[in-house]
Design a protein that fits this description.
Chain A is of the alpha/beta class. Chain A has 6 helices and 4 strands. Chain B contains 3 helices and 4 strands; from the N terminus they run E-H-E-E-H-E-H. The chains are: A alpha/beta, B alpha+beta.
């Protein structure tokens, strides 16, 4: 198996991103690669394409990476980060439209259970169905 | 069908729910949970459903499905989810 899907948490707030990551880490063990980024480069609220790109790299897995985000701007910047990835990686990153905290927990548990990227995304997005 | 009492303080919440789900996923067969003998029955492999059950401390959890899975999950619950923090 090509390992577990990696999880990236993106928030406008560094605290929210870190807190969500802490909750996920408490739920699943080290077998799920997890990275988070939040806040604007200079501090304050916002998101940063370079930080998202770095987080995707940190959580990279052959099984792909699922991104959880809080609000619109984080999604747009995540899409831009994906476009900056090498071509063979672009298709293996999924942005999940789900509540960032619950979605990150559900996605990471599915990933820990060996789910595929599509299954991880579906489980997270089922939360807001 | 098997019934076990949830002994850990946090009940079937957060980490215990995750442990139960991940254990259930290790079995090929189907295994379901309910708070009452007549259901509603939920899929033990879906962490969202397990957490939504909100099974509290002291609640009786009913399990049904693949025997090996039911036995393993029941044992996990009886052990208090191997979780000091619960």
């Amino acid at each position: 198996m090509s390992g577990r899907v990696g999880i990236v948490i993106v928030s406008h707030s560094a605290d929210v991103a870190r807190g969500a990551a802490d909750m996920v880490r408490q739920m699943v063990g080290p077998e799920v690669k997890l990275a988070h980024c939040g806040g604007a480069p200079g501090g304050g609220l916002g998101t940063d394409v370079a930080a998202i790109l770095a987080a995707i790299g940190a959580a990279w897995s052959a099984a792909g990476v699922a991104i959880l985000f809080d609000l619109g701007g984080a999604e747009t910047n995540s899409e831009m980060a994906i476009e900056l990835l090498p071509a063979e990686r672009r298709g293996r990153v999924a942005i999940c439209r789900a509540p960032v905290v619950e979605g990150a927990v559900i996605a990471s548990v599915e990933a820990a259970g060996g789910a595929t990227l599509a299954e991880v995304r579906a489980a997270a997005e089922a939360l807001s169905a | 069908m098997t019934a076990v009492t949830i002994g850990n303080p946090a009940g079937l919440h957060a980490r215990p729910a995750v442990k139960l789900t991940l254990l259930a996923k290790r079995f090929a067969g189907h295994v379901e949970l309910a708070l009452a003998e007549d259901g509603p029955w939920i899929d033990a492999k879906s962490v969202a459903q397990v957490m939504a059950l909100r099974a509290a401390h002291g609640a009786t959890l009913h399990l049904r499905g693949e025997d090996a899975a039911v036995a393993a999950l029941a044992a996990l619950v009886r052990r208090g989810f191997d979780d000091a923090g619960g």
